[in-house]
Write a structure and sequence with these properties.
alpha/beta, Rossmann fold, seven-stranded parallel sheet, three-stranded antiparallel sheet, globular, binds 2-amino-2-deoxy-6-O-phosphono-alpha-D-glucopyranose
């Protein structure tokens, strides 16, 4: 794993943006894996600015998001579909049919998980996967204890994750209890992974990810075994290294 230490959130976002643009401009049919949460918002804002300055286009790009809440409709402001559209897709001229998220409101969720997995494989797997880091070491919505061999699946969300994400919902009761997420092995099939980490509250998790043992009890630790991982982390997140 390569660790790039940057000053702050803005620098992390800019660094990630330059990296993605370089890939998108130099690849014929790039497949990007995208994440939600607060961490990648600055990256998406930077990508929009670069698109507006005509430094990049996305018509040849396909995207796959990591995860989605179960039970929320696509137009629910808390769905990840809505988030991606508002914070990125609708501003960068990417044909919506080239963007993919698992459907959290599918009638048959197991079938949806299988189909999502097949779509990723048909696209030739993900070239660059953007990841955030959960406080408990989750990646996507793969909570501690998830098998490293997992593929796209339905998960029960940890109370700690529901609490961490409650800030986006009117009350904690409104936070879904389940999600559909790429599995750990799905993520590990990505040719390259860019993990973004910002803020002091992530410092323990980042230290465990880099220096801890590889264990299903801390899902992100599997990244130590991937051959092409770049971590872009700010000073505050690096404070426990
Ligand atoms: C969420 C998402 C993850 C995200 C993580 C960190 O629950 N499912 O994909 O990376 O938690 O979120 P944040 O960036 O808001 O700290």
């Amino acid at each position: 794993m390569e660790l790039i230490k940057v000053k702050d959130y803005n620098e992390m976002s800019k660094r990630a943006c330059s990296f993605i643009i370089e890939k998108v401009n130099n690849m014929e049919k790039p497949v990007l894996g995208l994440a939600t949460g607060s961490t990648p918002e600055g990256l998406y804002q930077n990508l929009i600015e670069k698109y507006q300055k005509q430094e990049v286009t996305f018509d040849h790009v396909q995207t796959f998001n990591l995860d989605e809440y179960v039970g929320l409709k696509k137009d629910d402001p808390n769905s990840y579909d809505y988030y991606m559209n508002e914070k990125l897709f609708k501003h960068i001229g990417i044909p919506r049919e080239q963007t993919h998220l698992p459907s959290g409101d599918a009638a048959d969720l197991s079938q949806e998980a299988l189909q999502y997995e097949s779509l990723i494989q048909e696209a030739g797997n993900i070239d660059v996967q953007i990841l955030g880091l959960g406080l408990n070491g989750h990646i996507g919505f793969n909570e501690p204890g998830t098998q490293f061999s997992s593929r796209t699946h339905i998960v029960q969300l940890d109370e700690s994750t529901r609490n961490a994400n409650a800030r986006f919902f009117p009350t904690i009761e409104d936070v879904p209890k389940q999600a559909i997420t790429m599995g750990i092995d799905t993520i590990m099939q990505s040719k390259m992974i860019v993990l973004l980490v910002s803020g002091e509250k992530k410092a323990n998790a980042l230290s465990q990810l880099i220096d801890g043992e590889v264990t299903e009890a801390f899902p992100a630790s599997i990244l130590q075994t991937h051959s092409n991982v770049m971590i872009i982390a700010d000073q505050a997140a690096c404070s426990k290294l």
